[in-house]
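Input record (one chain):
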Amino acid sequence: MATLTELIDVLAGHRLVVLTGAGVSTDSGIPDYRGPDSPPRNPMTYQQFVGDPRFRRHYWARNQVGWRHVHRTEPNAGHRALVDLERRGIVAGVITQNVDLLHRQAGSQTVIDLHGSYDRVVCLRCGTRYTRQQVADRLDQLNPGFVESVTEVADVEIAPDADAVVQQTEHFVVADCWAPDPEGGPDPCGGILKPDIVYFGETVPRERVERAFALVDEADAMLVAGSSLAVQSGLRFVRHAAAAAKPIAVVNRGETRGDRYAAVTLHAGTSETLAELARRLPMR
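The corresponding structure, as predicted from the sequence alone:
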């Protein structure tokens, strides 16, 4: 395994694109799916969500608790270090697989939220977009006392997509779209509401992918931080950088699918490593 000095040697003098995953947010209190100490998880797929009302009910019941936790989290030292590196011209931008918006909250200016954001909801029928707070208020009206009852029994486990594990969801009432009917009928739209995030089995919007590829092309080296690169949506950017012969560095607790492309891999926490890079990388 490489040392921090070797990591700095590979990155020094380059303008970086940074690809981040859930490991960057663990020190903010958001556990990841695939870290070495993470319990097994089975994230809900897009097909399950849109095809089965029981899955939607279970998702919204859990999320009604979990999103509030993510909403209260704050950026950590790793997020702040990337802001500093961007201000100094070392980082061209961040492509993040996270939906927690902590890079933006920290102050990063060029951020591509590859998988969307937890705080927006979209109607799959009419396209109306809601804030997560608007949907939370609606769900509270339909399910009075639900969040308080769950919190009291501590039957909650927070997950990276603002989800949470709640056992008792059978009687939870799901909110449908309440915008006017797009066909002009007298009743509300009634379409399925879905968090504006990319589910497993769903594709990232083409425009978002193209912007991410352009950011990789703009930089002359890549830093992967806190991602196992287990899914193709992130790994493709590593492969793209490798095909262009750009140096790639990986910082993660454990092996990743991108290690074979990396000039250097460091098995370490991202917060302390990124903070150290901000202190020791020279300004371009």
